[in-house]
Amino acid sequence: MSSSHQSTGNALDANFGVDYVISYRYAATDKAKAEAQFEKLVRLLVGVGLAVEVRDGDDCSLLVFTKIASERRLLGEVYRSRIKDWLHGIRLAAPEKESQKILSSEPLTDSERLRIVYFLITNPRSEGGAGITPQKGEWKDVESIFPLHDHPFNSEWLKRWSGKMYINTDDLTQIRDRFGEKIAIYFAFLQSYAFFLIFPAVTGAIARYILPKFSSIYAIAIGLWSVVFVERWKRQEVDIAVRWGVRGASSIQHPRPEFEYEKEVFDTVTGEKLKVFPSRKRLMRQLLQVPFAILTISVLGGLIAICFGIEIFISEVYNGPLKWLLVFLPVGLLSALVPTLTAILTGIATRLTEYENYATIDSYEAAMTRKVFIFNFITCYLPLFLTAFIYVPFGSLIVPHLDIFKLTVKPSAKGPKELQTPKGFQINSARLQKQVFYFALQAQVINLALEVVVPYLKRRGFSKVKKLKSSMAARRGGEKPDASINDPPEEAAFLARVRSEAELDIYDVNVDLREMCMQFGYIVLFSVVWPLSGFAYLVNNWVELRSDAIKICAGMRRPVPWRADSIGPWLDSLGFLAWLGSITTAALVYLFGGDGPGPEGTPWGIKVWGLLLTIFCSEHMYLLVRLIARTVLASTESPGLRKERRERFLVRKRYLEESIGEEASLIATAERSGEKIDTEMSGEKPEVKFWGRQRSLDESLRFGKGAISRTAPGEKKIQ
């Protein structure tokens, strides 16, 4: 047995052979309805070839354990899945039909098995699935569907990665076999990004200690680096997809259960029945993104701008009592209001995306990602934009108009003198560097704690509170007994682990991709302010690569192993940030580089034409470099593309040799039996359809020979 198949078997043995756990919570419904719905759930699961076992869950819930009922059923689904990939061009050759051979050439990985079982549970009944969609429609009582962690593998994975400086191809392949290509390609991206960060880390150290501040040389180097990284990653995605056999997997669009079609039509080419929602109507709904973007910018941007003004006034103008306390007022406002407003706007974005009525899960996620990017762009970069392009260049004009913020500190001021702008006020030109330093260093540490440490402490705290409530209820009596009271002794530890995993949060790889995308933006937009930010992010990402592994293994439920051949819409976000970085960096170098006119808050020396010309030249340099990078990469064939071309050639050659071999075998057999056989396998002389007429092979030959005989030896034209 192969290592991949063996590891799959070990994972199943560690979890009593369970593939998925379905948490069914019946507290919100009456008893008769809950029993009927539960019976329907179980019958549907059994009807698609799954074995079912049920145990008690926590707080009025049931745990429904499922697995493939037979090996024959599993092999059938594997063949159906792989033949679908072949028909969509993902696989180069059709899979073997014999059940004994189907896994011989390509063993079944843990992720492929779990993906197949998940589709059996969730696919519509018209496509052979049970149609179970958690928390939606008739299945609103189905709380979640999740696979179980393979704890022996997780422990070995974390132990191995903790002692390695570099994550190699084999490590990434193991992640792909366990958690699917979508998560594995994120780790591949993070590894590649961390490797590329060596360049800005080294050049940043040179710029910090050798070159002048706001160095144009460093700005050009970072601009070139951003282009090369984005274009190189596009090529690397292709290599990874070819190596894992998922190139073109995005062409298989999984239907979205919530999609509401208006009519069914037949495809004029294929005759296939299609569910259609008018594209014009969807476009009209998508236009609502414009007022939504304006609302987002107004709400979040306005809040950040107001808090920014208050913070400047209190920290740099006000010198009265309680200043040490009042300086925390803007931070408190942002900490309290930004998460709340972001949650509200995210809810609006979700409703808007659902209203746009996308037919597939992939298109829905792409639309949602674009909206989420707007939130993060504002919250991450707006404070730096305000400091760099408003406060520092125009501070002497703005500060006198901050009198409105005196209302925030007037109750604590003893006299009007404490509220007056001090004479000789000077712009704090180091403010921008301190902000970039905060986002590059302190914010990364805080974010790491929020991702790993805080969730761990929260789980421990909730666990202790739960035990305390259970013990108090037991003393009072009359409360629902603990779910583990009826557990068989041999299953007690396993069921306790399952109940613990059921309470964990759902892992979303898009959250980590968003974090890396925003970090890339800090480098290309503002690292010219503090060049050592590249080194700080390099160290952070070495830790991030391992902390994300810990988060997946211990802090989240095991994710469904989705396939992917790219990081999706985040690749477009990287390209946008690289382009914007060419503009922002050029403006910063012009304003603050050398003896630039901006740092002292006196904008009178800024030449608008000079600033616009600098931006224009920088942007066109970026476009030229991107064109050159794409041309160079396109002229060189990547290892993945070479491998794909070689495999396609070998497949064609094998099929050709097999067909010729079969024909030669038939001819040899006929000759041994004394029969005469035509070289055409059908035994009949085919007719050739040419220029709208039917000709037999003999007629075509006679026509050609006659034309040749009528042609004089010296003539070149054949009549």
Automatic annotation (TrEMBL):
Where would I find the Anoctamin transmembrane domain in this sequence? 175-647
Give the UniProt keywords, A-Z. Answer: Membrane, Transmembrane, Transmembrane helix
Q: Which GO terms describe its molecular function?
A: chloride channel activity
A GO cellular-component term linked to this record: membrane
Cytoplasm found in the keyword field? no
Q: Where found?
A: Membrane
Domain Anoctamin alpha-beta plait, residue spans: 17-142
| Residues that span the membrane, as ranges | 183-210, 216-233, 290-314, 326-352, 373-394, 436-457, 520-539, 574-592
* Bilayer topology term: Multi-pass membrane protein
Pfam families noted in UniProt: Anoctamin (PF04547), Anoctamin_N (PF20877)
Q: What is this protein called?
A: Plasma membrane channel protein
Species whose genome carries this gene? Trichoglossum hirsutum
